[in-house]
Protein 1
Amino acid sequence: MIELRDLTKTYGNVHAVRGLTFEIPKGQVVGFLGPNGAGKSTTMKMLTGYLAPTSGRAVVNGIDVNDKSIDVRRCIGYLAENNALYEDMIVLDFLRFVACMRNVPERDQARAIHNAVDRCGIGHVLGKDIGALSKGYKQRVGIAQAILHDPQILILDEPTSGLDPNQIVEIRDLIKELGTEKTVLMSTHILGEAQSTCSRILIINEGKLVADDTPEQLASIEGGALYVELASKHEAPLHGLPFDLSQVEALLCNLRGVTKVETGALGFTLHYNKEDPRRELFDMAVAEGLVLMEMRRKEASLEETFRRLTME
Protein backbone atom coordinates (compact mmCIF):
# COMPACT_ATOMS: atom_id res chain seq x y z
CA MET A 1 0.00 0.00 0.00
CA ILE A 2 2.93 2.33 0.70
CA GLU A 3 6.33 1.95 -0.97
CA LEU A 4 9.30 4.27 -0.62
CA ARG A 5 12.44 3.89 -2.73
CA ASP A 6 15.49 6.02 -1.88
CA LEU A 7 13.25 8.95 -0.97
CA THR A 8 15.22 12.15 -0.34
CA LYS A 9 14.31 15.71 0.59
CA THR A 10 16.81 18.55 0.90
CA TYR A 11 16.41 22.23 1.71
CA GLY A 12 19.58 23.84 0.42
CA ASN A 13 22.35 22.28 2.50
CA VAL A 14 19.91 20.67 4.96
CA HIS A 15 19.19 16.97 4.33
CA ALA A 16 15.79 16.39 5.95
CA VAL A 17 15.28 12.89 4.52
CA ARG A 18 18.14 10.71 3.30
CA GLY A 19 17.29 7.79 1.02
CA LEU A 20 14.35 6.24 2.91
CA THR A 21 13.32 2.81 1.64
CA PHE A 22 10.53 0.68 3.12
CA GLU A 23 7.20 -0.97 2.26
CA ILE A 24 3.93 -1.20 4.21
CA PRO A 25 1.34 -3.85 3.26
CA LYS A 26 -2.42 -3.60 3.65
CA GLY A 27 -3.91 -3.92 7.13
CA GLN A 28 -0.77 -3.02 9.08
CA VAL A 29 -0.58 -0.36 11.80
CA VAL A 30 2.93 1.07 11.64
CA GLY A 31 4.48 3.44 14.16
CA PHE A 32 6.82 6.04 12.66
CA LEU A 33 9.21 7.15 15.39
CA GLY A 34 12.14 9.51 15.65
CA PRO A 35 13.39 12.50 17.63
CA ASN A 36 12.36 16.05 16.73
CA GLY A 37 13.83 17.02 13.36
CA ALA A 38 14.38 13.40 12.28
CA GLY A 39 12.27 13.84 9.12
CA LYS A 40 8.98 12.18 10.13
CA SER A 41 6.63 15.01 9.19
CA THR A 42 8.59 15.75 6.00
CA THR A 43 8.22 12.11 4.92
CA MET A 44 4.50 12.15 5.64
CA LYS A 45 4.07 15.37 3.66
CA MET A 46 5.81 13.77 0.68
CA LEU A 47 3.56 10.71 0.91
CA THR A 48 0.46 12.89 0.85
CA GLY A 49 1.64 15.03 -2.06
CA TYR A 50 2.05 18.14 0.09
CA LEU A 51 5.80 18.23 -0.64
CA ALA A 52 7.66 17.03 -3.72
CA PRO A 53 10.69 14.80 -3.03
CA THR A 54 14.12 15.94 -4.16
CA SER A 55 14.79 12.44 -5.48
CA GLY A 56 13.51 8.90 -5.15
CA ARG A 57 9.98 7.52 -5.44
CA ALA A 58 6.91 7.36 -3.23
CA VAL A 59 4.18 4.99 -4.39
CA VAL A 60 0.83 4.87 -2.58
CA ASN A 61 -1.77 2.23 -3.47
CA GLY A 62 0.16 1.56 -6.68
CA ILE A 63 0.14 5.24 -7.70
CA ASP A 64 3.31 7.33 -7.99
CA VAL A 65 2.86 10.45 -5.87
CA ASN A 66 4.88 12.57 -8.31
CA ASP A 67 2.84 11.50 -11.33
CA LYS A 68 -0.72 11.50 -9.94
CA SER A 69 -0.77 13.46 -6.71
CA ILE A 70 -4.54 14.08 -6.75
CA ASP A 71 -5.31 10.37 -7.22
CA VAL A 72 -3.07 9.57 -4.26
CA ARG A 73 -4.86 12.11 -2.06
CA ARG A 74 -8.21 10.51 -2.83
CA CYS A 75 -7.21 7.25 -1.15
CA ILE A 76 -5.47 8.85 1.86
CA GLY A 77 -6.85 10.22 5.10
CA TYR A 78 -4.36 12.68 6.59
CA LEU A 79 -4.11 14.22 10.03
CA ALA A 80 -1.34 16.83 10.02
CA GLU A 81 0.80 17.51 13.06
CA ASN A 82 -0.66 20.98 13.61
CA ASN A 83 -4.20 19.75 12.80
CA ALA A 84 -5.20 22.87 10.86
CA LEU A 85 -8.96 23.45 11.28
CA TYR A 86 -11.33 26.30 10.41
CA GLU A 87 -11.88 27.42 13.99
CA ASP A 88 -14.69 29.86 13.14
CA MET A 89 -16.81 27.02 11.72
CA ILE A 90 -19.30 24.84 13.59
CA VAL A 91 -18.11 21.22 13.76
CA LEU A 92 -21.01 19.84 11.71
CA ASP A 93 -20.61 22.51 9.03
CA PHE A 94 -16.88 21.77 8.86
CA LEU A 95 -17.51 18.05 8.33
CA ARG A 96 -20.07 18.82 5.63
CA PHE A 97 -17.51 21.07 3.96
CA VAL A 98 -14.86 18.32 4.11
CA ALA A 99 -17.36 15.82 2.65
CA CYS A 100 -17.93 18.16 -0.30
CA MET A 101 -14.20 18.74 -0.77
CA ARG A 102 -13.66 14.97 -0.72
CA ASN A 103 -16.34 14.52 -3.39
CA VAL A 104 -18.48 12.30 -1.17
CA PRO A 105 -21.80 11.93 -3.08
CA GLU A 106 -24.53 14.09 -1.54
CA ARG A 107 -26.76 11.08 -0.91
CA ASP A 108 -23.95 9.46 1.16
CA GLN A 109 -22.77 12.50 3.10
CA ALA A 110 -25.11 12.14 6.10
CA ARG A 111 -24.11 8.49 6.60
CA ALA A 112 -20.39 9.24 6.15
CA ILE A 113 -20.53 12.09 8.68
CA HIS A 114 -22.52 9.96 11.14
CA ASN A 115 -19.97 7.12 10.95
CA ALA A 116 -17.00 9.46 11.46
CA VAL A 117 -18.73 11.30 14.33
CA ASP A 118 -19.71 8.06 16.04
CA ARG A 119 -16.25 6.54 15.75
CA CYS A 120 -14.51 9.65 17.11
CA GLY A 121 -17.03 10.38 19.88
CA ILE A 122 -17.81 13.97 18.95
CA GLY A 123 -21.60 13.76 18.66
CA HIS A 124 -22.25 16.13 21.57
CA VAL A 125 -20.04 18.93 20.14
CA LEU A 126 -21.44 19.02 16.59
CA GLY A 127 -23.15 22.36 17.22
CA LYS A 128 -20.12 24.08 18.76
CA ASP A 129 -17.56 26.34 17.14
CA ILE A 130 -14.30 24.46 16.57
CA GLY A 131 -12.39 27.35 18.17
CA ALA A 132 -14.31 26.80 21.43
CA LEU A 133 -13.29 23.13 21.72
CA SER A 134 -10.53 21.78 23.92
CA LYS A 135 -7.34 20.60 22.25
CA GLY A 136 -8.42 17.00 22.72
CA TYR A 137 -11.72 17.50 20.93
CA LYS A 138 -10.04 19.45 18.14
CA GLN A 139 -7.84 16.39 17.67
CA ARG A 140 -10.94 14.20 17.48
CA VAL A 141 -12.45 16.47 14.84
CA GLY A 142 -9.16 16.22 12.91
CA ILE A 143 -9.34 12.41 12.97
CA ALA A 144 -13.01 12.52 11.96
CA GLN A 145 -12.21 14.56 8.84
CA ALA A 146 -9.37 12.14 8.01
CA ILE A 147 -11.69 9.08 7.97
CA LEU A 148 -14.78 10.83 6.58
CA HIS A 149 -14.33 9.61 2.99
CA ASP A 150 -13.47 6.05 4.12
CA PRO A 151 -9.88 6.07 2.78
CA GLN A 152 -7.80 2.93 2.32
CA ILE A 153 -4.74 4.52 3.92
CA LEU A 154 -4.49 6.70 7.03
CA ILE A 155 -1.46 8.88 7.70
CA LEU A 156 -1.66 10.27 11.22
CA ASP A 157 0.91 12.74 12.53
CA GLU A 158 0.77 12.71 16.36
CA PRO A 159 -2.89 11.54 16.55
CA THR A 160 -3.02 11.44 20.38
CA SER A 161 -1.42 14.84 20.93
CA GLY A 162 -3.30 16.83 23.57
CA LEU A 163 -5.63 14.01 24.61
CA ASP A 164 -6.25 13.01 28.22
CA PRO A 165 -5.52 9.39 29.29
CA ASN A 166 -9.11 8.23 28.74
CA GLN A 167 -9.24 9.80 25.29
CA ILE A 168 -5.87 8.28 24.40
CA VAL A 169 -7.23 4.79 25.16
CA GLU A 170 -10.31 5.49 23.02
CA ILE A 171 -8.27 6.77 20.06
CA ARG A 172 -5.81 3.88 20.44
CA ASP A 173 -8.69 1.41 20.22
CA LEU A 174 -10.04 3.29 17.19
CA ILE A 175 -6.68 3.12 15.42
CA LYS A 176 -6.42 -0.60 16.15
CA GLU A 177 -9.93 -1.11 14.78
CA LEU A 178 -9.17 0.90 11.65
CA GLY A 179 -5.97 -1.10 11.20
CA THR A 180 -7.96 -4.29 10.62
CA GLU A 181 -9.33 -2.87 7.38
CA LYS A 182 -6.95 -0.05 6.44
CA THR A 183 -3.24 0.65 6.31
CA VAL A 184 -2.20 3.07 9.07
CA LEU A 185 1.07 5.00 9.34
CA MET A 186 1.22 7.05 12.52
CA SER A 187 3.97 9.11 14.09
CA THR A 188 4.11 9.65 17.83
CA HIS A 189 6.48 10.78 20.57
CA ILE A 190 4.78 8.51 23.10
CA LEU A 191 6.74 5.26 22.82
CA GLY A 192 4.34 3.34 25.05
CA GLU A 193 1.54 4.35 22.70
CA ALA A 194 3.41 2.95 19.70
CA GLN A 195 4.25 -0.23 21.62
CA SER A 196 0.61 -0.90 22.50
CA THR A 197 -0.96 0.23 19.21
CA CYS A 198 1.39 -0.76 16.39
CA SER A 199 2.30 -4.16 14.97
CA ARG A 200 5.46 -2.73 13.44
CA ILE A 201 7.75 0.19 14.20
CA LEU A 202 10.01 2.24 11.93
CA ILE A 203 12.59 4.47 13.62
CA ILE A 204 14.36 7.21 11.70
CA ASN A 205 17.18 9.45 12.83
CA GLU A 206 18.68 12.37 10.91
CA GLY A 207 16.54 11.42 7.92
CA LYS A 208 17.75 7.80 7.76
CA LEU A 209 15.98 4.56 8.67
CA VAL A 210 17.75 3.00 11.68
CA ALA A 211 15.26 0.29 12.73
CA ASP A 212 12.34 -1.67 11.27
CA ASP A 213 10.83 -4.45 13.39
CA THR A 214 8.04 -5.43 15.75
CA PRO A 215 7.84 -3.61 19.12
CA GLU A 216 8.76 -6.85 20.90
CA GLN A 217 11.87 -7.44 18.82
CA LEU A 218 13.04 -3.85 19.17
CA ALA A 219 12.54 -3.96 22.93
CA SER A 220 14.66 -7.11 23.15
CA ILE A 221 17.62 -5.66 21.23
CA GLU A 222 19.08 -4.35 24.45
CA GLY A 223 18.67 -7.71 26.17
CA GLY A 224 17.05 -7.61 29.60
CA ALA A 225 17.35 -8.59 33.21
CA LEU A 226 16.43 -11.54 35.41
CA TYR A 227 15.73 -11.41 39.13
CA VAL A 228 16.65 -14.77 40.67
CA GLU A 229 16.35 -16.21 44.17
CA LEU A 230 18.30 -19.41 44.84
CA ALA A 231 18.46 -21.76 47.79
CA SER A 232 20.44 -24.85 48.70
CA LYS A 233 18.68 -28.17 48.16
CA HIS A 234 19.63 -29.29 51.65
CA GLU A 235 19.02 -26.15 53.69
CA ALA A 236 15.97 -23.90 53.98
CA PRO A 237 16.74 -20.21 53.39
CA LEU A 238 16.18 -17.92 56.36
CA HIS A 239 16.46 -14.16 55.82
CA GLY A 240 19.15 -14.69 53.26
CA LEU A 241 20.92 -17.29 51.19
CA PRO A 242 22.40 -20.31 53.03
CA PHE A 243 25.49 -20.61 50.84
CA ASP A 244 28.56 -18.72 49.75
CA LEU A 245 27.25 -15.62 47.95
CA SER A 246 30.52 -14.90 46.18
CA GLN A 247 30.70 -18.47 44.85
CA VAL A 248 27.15 -18.35 43.50
CA GLU A 249 27.74 -14.90 42.03
CA ALA A 250 30.78 -16.24 40.18
CA LEU A 251 28.71 -19.10 38.76
CA LEU A 252 26.07 -16.63 37.55
CA CYS A 253 28.69 -14.37 35.98
CA ASN A 254 29.97 -17.29 33.93
CA LEU A 255 26.58 -17.95 32.31
CA ARG A 256 26.61 -17.29 28.57
CA GLY A 257 25.11 -13.90 27.72
CA VAL A 258 25.25 -12.49 31.25
CA THR A 259 27.01 -9.11 31.31
CA LYS A 260 26.53 -8.08 34.93
CA VAL A 261 25.33 -9.59 38.22
CA GLU A 262 23.98 -7.53 41.13
CA THR A 263 23.68 -9.18 44.55
CA GLY A 264 20.75 -8.19 46.75
CA ALA A 265 19.58 -9.17 50.22
CA LEU A 266 17.65 -12.22 49.02
CA GLY A 267 18.61 -12.75 45.42
CA PHE A 268 20.49 -11.71 42.31
CA THR A 269 19.73 -9.52 39.32
CA LEU A 270 21.31 -10.79 36.10
CA HIS A 271 21.74 -8.39 33.19
CA TYR A 272 22.13 -10.07 29.82
CA ASN A 273 22.49 -9.23 26.15
CA LYS A 274 20.53 -10.76 23.26
CA GLU A 275 21.16 -14.32 24.48
CA ASP A 276 18.59 -15.39 27.06
CA PRO A 277 20.41 -17.18 29.95
CA ARG A 278 17.37 -18.84 31.58
CA ARG A 279 17.92 -22.35 30.20
CA GLU A 280 21.61 -22.33 31.12
CA LEU A 281 20.71 -20.90 34.55
CA PHE A 282 18.37 -23.81 35.19
CA ASP A 283 21.02 -26.36 34.12
CA MET A 284 23.60 -24.69 36.38
CA ALA A 285 21.24 -24.78 39.36
CA VAL A 286 20.60 -28.51 38.87
CA ALA A 287 24.32 -29.26 38.50
CA GLU A 288 25.24 -27.27 41.62
CA GLY A 289 22.46 -28.63 43.81
CA LEU A 290 20.57 -25.34 43.97
CA VAL A 291 16.83 -24.66 43.90
CA LEU A 292 15.29 -21.84 41.90
CA MET A 293 12.92 -20.23 44.41
CA GLU A 294 11.93 -17.38 42.10
CA MET A 295 12.79 -16.06 38.64
CA ARG A 296 11.29 -12.94 37.05
CA ARG A 297 12.18 -11.64 33.62
CA LYS A 298 12.26 -7.98 32.67
CA GLU A 299 12.99 -6.99 29.10
CA ALA A 300 14.54 -3.69 28.15
CA SER A 301 11.98 -1.05 27.25
CA LEU A 302 11.43 0.32 23.76
CA GLU A 303 12.55 3.66 25.17
CA GLU A 304 16.05 2.30 25.86
CA THR A 305 16.34 0.95 22.31
CA PHE A 306 15.03 4.24 20.89
CA ARG A 307 17.57 6.27 22.86
CA ARG A 308 20.45 4.07 21.74
CA LEU A 309 19.45 4.16 18.07
CA THR A 310 18.87 7.93 17.97
CA MET A 311 21.74 9.11 20.15
CA GLU A 312 24.65 7.05 18.80
Protein 2
Amino acid sequence: MFDASQPGAPLALDGVWLTLPSAAGPVEILRGLDFTVDAGERVAVVGPSGSGKSTLIAIAAGLERPSRGKVRLLGQELSRLDEDGRAKLRRGRVSLVFQAFHLLPNMTAEENVAAPLEIAGAWGAARTAREWLDRVGLSTRLRHYPHQLSGGEQQRVALARALAPSPALLFADEPTGNLDHDNARHIADLMFELSAQTGAALVLVTHDEALAARADRIARMAAGRVEG
Protein backbone atom coordinates (compact mmCIF):
# COMPACT_ATOMS: atom_id res chain seq x y z
CA MET A 1 0.00 0.00 0.00
CA PHE A 2 1.08 3.59 -0.57
CA ASP A 3 1.48 6.03 2.29
CA ALA A 4 -1.73 8.10 2.58
CA SER A 5 0.24 10.90 4.24
CA GLN A 6 2.64 11.35 1.33
CA PRO A 7 3.36 15.04 0.66
CA GLY A 8 2.24 16.73 -2.53
CA ALA A 9 -0.70 14.42 -3.25
CA PRO A 10 -4.00 16.32 -3.07
CA LEU A 11 -5.86 13.02 -2.71
CA ALA A 12 -4.95 9.65 -1.22
CA LEU A 13 -7.22 6.76 -0.24
CA ASP A 14 -5.61 3.92 1.67
CA GLY A 15 -7.41 0.63 2.29
CA VAL A 16 -10.88 2.17 2.06
CA TRP A 17 -13.93 0.00 2.63
CA LEU A 18 -17.59 0.96 2.44
CA THR A 19 -20.07 -1.59 3.72
CA LEU A 20 -23.80 -0.82 3.68
CA PRO A 21 -26.65 -2.76 5.30
CA SER A 22 -29.35 -4.40 3.22
CA ALA A 23 -32.24 -6.79 3.78
CA ALA A 24 -30.06 -9.62 2.48
CA GLY A 25 -27.13 -8.67 4.70
CA PRO A 26 -24.12 -6.33 4.48
CA VAL A 27 -23.11 -5.21 0.97
CA GLU A 28 -19.49 -4.29 0.31
CA ILE A 29 -19.41 -1.32 -2.10
CA LEU A 30 -15.69 -0.56 -1.78
CA ARG A 31 -13.31 -3.32 -0.76
CA GLY A 32 -9.90 -2.18 0.44
CA LEU A 33 -9.55 0.47 -2.25
CA ASP A 34 -6.22 2.27 -2.75
CA PHE A 35 -6.17 5.38 -4.94
CA THR A 36 -3.99 8.46 -5.18
CA VAL A 37 -3.89 11.58 -7.34
CA ASP A 38 -0.83 13.79 -7.67
CA ALA A 39 -0.92 17.58 -7.96
CA GLY A 40 -2.12 18.58 -11.42
CA GLU A 41 -2.64 14.97 -12.49
CA ARG A 42 -5.65 14.01 -14.60
CA VAL A 43 -6.97 10.54 -13.78
CA ALA A 44 -9.85 8.77 -15.53
CA VAL A 45 -11.78 6.18 -13.51
CA VAL A 46 -13.50 3.53 -15.61
CA GLY A 47 -15.27 0.26 -14.92
CA PRO A 48 -18.63 -1.50 -15.22
CA SER A 49 -21.80 -0.24 -13.56
CA GLY A 50 -21.80 -1.10 -9.88
CA SER A 51 -18.02 -1.23 -9.61
CA GLY A 52 -17.96 1.71 -7.18
CA LYS A 53 -16.86 4.60 -9.42
CA SER A 54 -19.33 7.20 -8.17
CA THR A 55 -18.90 5.97 -4.60
CA LEU A 56 -15.18 6.58 -4.95
CA ILE A 57 -15.88 10.25 -5.70
CA ALA A 58 -18.36 10.56 -2.81
CA ILE A 59 -15.82 9.12 -0.37
CA ALA A 60 -12.87 11.04 -1.80
CA ALA A 61 -14.71 14.38 -1.64
CA GLY A 62 -15.87 13.77 1.91
CA LEU A 63 -19.52 13.56 0.96
CA GLU A 64 -19.72 10.08 2.49
CA ARG A 65 -17.68 8.43 5.24
CA PRO A 66 -15.94 5.10 4.65
CA SER A 67 -16.54 2.15 6.96
CA ARG A 68 -12.80 1.93 7.47
CA GLY A 69 -9.55 3.05 5.87
CA LYS A 70 -7.94 6.47 5.43
CA VAL A 71 -8.90 9.34 3.16
CA ARG A 72 -6.52 12.27 2.97
CA LEU A 73 -7.81 15.28 1.04
CA LEU A 74 -5.64 18.36 0.52
CA GLY A 75 -3.43 17.36 3.40
CA GLN A 76 -6.27 16.69 5.86
CA GLU A 77 -7.31 13.31 7.24
CA LEU A 78 -11.08 13.39 6.70
CA SER A 79 -11.88 11.12 9.65
CA ARG A 80 -10.69 13.91 11.94
CA LEU A 81 -13.19 16.42 10.53
CA ASP A 82 -16.91 16.71 11.17
CA GLU A 83 -19.38 17.59 8.40
CA ASP A 84 -18.78 21.34 8.78
CA GLY A 85 -15.04 20.82 8.75
CA ARG A 86 -15.22 18.80 5.55
CA ALA A 87 -17.41 21.46 3.93
CA LYS A 88 -14.92 24.18 4.89
CA LEU A 89 -12.06 22.11 3.49
CA ARG A 90 -13.85 21.72 0.15
CA ARG A 91 -14.93 25.34 -0.12
CA GLY A 92 -13.08 27.00 -2.98
CA ARG A 93 -10.54 24.16 -3.17
CA VAL A 94 -12.57 21.15 -4.31
CA SER A 95 -15.20 21.29 -7.05
CA LEU A 96 -17.59 18.73 -8.48
CA VAL A 97 -19.31 18.38 -11.85
CA PHE A 98 -22.02 15.77 -12.30
CA GLN A 99 -23.97 14.19 -15.15
CA ALA A 100 -27.00 16.12 -13.89
CA PHE A 101 -26.13 19.80 -14.07
CA HIS A 102 -27.43 20.78 -10.61
CA LEU A 103 -27.95 24.42 -11.55
CA LEU A 104 -30.26 26.51 -9.38
CA PRO A 105 -33.36 27.07 -11.54
CA ASN A 106 -34.22 30.49 -10.12
CA MET A 107 -30.75 31.92 -10.83
CA THR A 108 -29.26 33.12 -14.10
CA ALA A 109 -26.11 31.57 -15.54
CA GLU A 110 -24.06 34.42 -14.05
CA GLU A 111 -25.69 34.03 -10.65
CA ASN A 112 -25.16 30.25 -10.66
CA VAL A 113 -21.43 30.71 -11.23
CA ALA A 114 -21.10 33.62 -8.80
CA ALA A 115 -23.02 32.01 -5.92
CA PRO A 116 -20.26 29.65 -4.65
CA LEU A 117 -17.73 32.49 -4.92
CA GLU A 118 -19.94 34.75 -2.83
CA ILE A 119 -20.46 32.03 -0.22
CA ALA A 120 -16.68 31.65 0.00
CA GLY A 121 -16.33 35.41 0.48
CA ALA A 122 -14.43 35.96 -2.77
CA TRP A 123 -14.05 39.53 -3.94
CA GLY A 124 -15.50 40.42 -7.35
CA ALA A 125 -17.64 37.28 -7.65
CA ALA A 126 -19.87 38.66 -10.41
CA ARG A 127 -16.91 39.78 -12.51
CA THR A 128 -15.20 36.42 -12.09
CA ALA A 129 -18.42 34.66 -13.08
CA ARG A 130 -18.65 36.73 -16.26
CA GLU A 131 -15.01 36.02 -17.10
CA TRP A 132 -15.51 32.26 -16.72
CA LEU A 133 -18.73 32.21 -18.70
CA ASP A 134 -16.84 33.99 -21.45
CA ARG A 135 -14.12 31.33 -21.30
CA VAL A 136 -16.71 28.59 -21.87
CA GLY A 137 -18.32 30.53 -24.73
CA LEU A 138 -21.42 31.80 -22.93
CA SER A 139 -20.80 35.54 -22.73
CA THR A 140 -24.10 36.18 -24.52
CA ARG A 141 -26.08 33.95 -22.13
CA LEU A 142 -25.24 35.56 -18.79
CA ARG A 143 -28.83 36.55 -18.00
CA HIS A 144 -30.43 33.31 -19.14
CA TYR A 145 -31.97 30.89 -16.68
CA PRO A 146 -31.23 27.14 -16.86
CA HIS A 147 -34.54 26.33 -18.58
CA GLN A 148 -33.54 28.76 -21.35
CA LEU A 149 -30.27 26.93 -22.01
CA SER A 150 -29.55 23.74 -23.92
CA GLY A 151 -28.07 20.72 -22.15
CA GLY A 152 -24.61 21.51 -23.47
CA GLU A 153 -24.91 25.12 -22.34
CA GLN A 154 -26.06 24.07 -18.87
CA GLN A 155 -23.05 21.77 -18.53
CA ARG A 156 -20.76 24.62 -19.61
CA VAL A 157 -22.28 26.76 -16.85
CA ALA A 158 -21.68 23.92 -14.39
CA LEU A 159 -18.06 23.64 -15.56
CA ALA A 160 -17.52 27.40 -15.25
CA ARG A 161 -19.01 27.26 -11.73
CA ALA A 162 -16.66 24.43 -10.79
CA LEU A 163 -13.49 26.07 -12.09
CA ALA A 164 -14.18 29.71 -11.18
CA PRO A 165 -12.85 29.31 -7.59
CA SER A 166 -9.54 27.91 -9.01
CA PRO A 167 -9.84 24.61 -7.12
CA ALA A 168 -6.89 22.33 -6.42
CA LEU A 169 -9.02 19.30 -7.27
CA LEU A 170 -11.92 18.80 -9.67
CA PHE A 171 -14.16 15.72 -9.53
CA ALA A 172 -16.25 15.03 -12.64
CA ASP A 173 -18.77 12.18 -12.53
CA GLU A 174 -19.94 11.28 -16.07
CA PRO A 175 -19.99 15.00 -17.04
CA THR A 176 -20.83 14.22 -20.68
CA GLY A 177 -23.31 11.41 -20.00
CA ASN A 178 -26.42 13.46 -20.75
CA LEU A 179 -25.06 15.17 -23.86
CA ASP A 180 -25.09 14.41 -27.57
CA HIS A 181 -21.80 13.58 -29.30
CA ASP A 182 -20.89 17.11 -30.39
CA ASN A 183 -21.70 18.70 -27.04
CA ALA A 184 -19.93 15.88 -25.18
CA ARG A 185 -16.77 16.45 -27.20
CA HIS A 186 -16.96 20.20 -26.63
CA ILE A 187 -17.37 19.80 -22.86
CA ALA A 188 -14.49 17.29 -22.76
CA ASP A 189 -12.26 19.70 -24.69
CA LEU A 190 -13.12 22.52 -22.30
CA MET A 191 -12.65 20.41 -19.18
CA PHE A 192 -9.18 19.20 -20.12
CA GLU A 193 -8.10 22.57 -21.49
CA LEU A 194 -9.26 24.54 -18.47
CA SER A 195 -7.99 22.06 -15.88
CA ALA A 196 -4.58 22.23 -17.56
CA GLN A 197 -4.66 26.04 -17.57
CA THR A 198 -5.62 26.27 -13.89
CA GLY A 199 -3.44 23.40 -12.70
CA ALA A 200 -6.39 21.64 -11.05
CA ALA A 201 -6.00 17.91 -10.57
CA LEU A 202 -8.87 16.07 -12.25
CA VAL A 203 -10.64 12.85 -11.27
CA LEU A 204 -12.95 11.91 -14.14
CA VAL A 205 -15.46 9.06 -13.88
CA THR A 206 -16.53 8.00 -17.35
CA HIS A 207 -17.75 5.02 -19.37
CA ASP A 208 -16.26 6.58 -22.52
CA GLU A 209 -12.92 4.91 -23.26
CA ALA A 210 -11.98 7.58 -25.82
CA LEU A 211 -12.51 10.28 -23.22
CA ALA A 212 -10.62 8.29 -20.60
CA ALA A 213 -7.67 7.94 -22.98
CA ARG A 214 -7.14 11.70 -22.83
CA ALA A 215 -6.23 11.51 -19.14
CA ASP A 216 -2.69 11.14 -17.83
CA ARG A 217 -3.64 7.82 -16.26
CA ILE A 218 -6.57 5.39 -16.28
CA ALA A 219 -7.70 3.68 -13.06
CA ARG A 220 -9.84 0.64 -13.77
CA MET A 221 -12.34 -0.38 -11.10
CA ALA A 222 -13.95 -3.77 -10.55
CA ALA A 223 -15.80 -5.08 -7.52
CA GLY A 224 -14.97 -2.09 -5.37
CA ARG A 225 -11.22 -2.00 -6.04
CA VAL A 226 -8.89 -0.18 -8.41
CA GLU A 227 -7.13 -2.78 -10.53
CA GLY A 228 -4.81 -0.56 -12.50
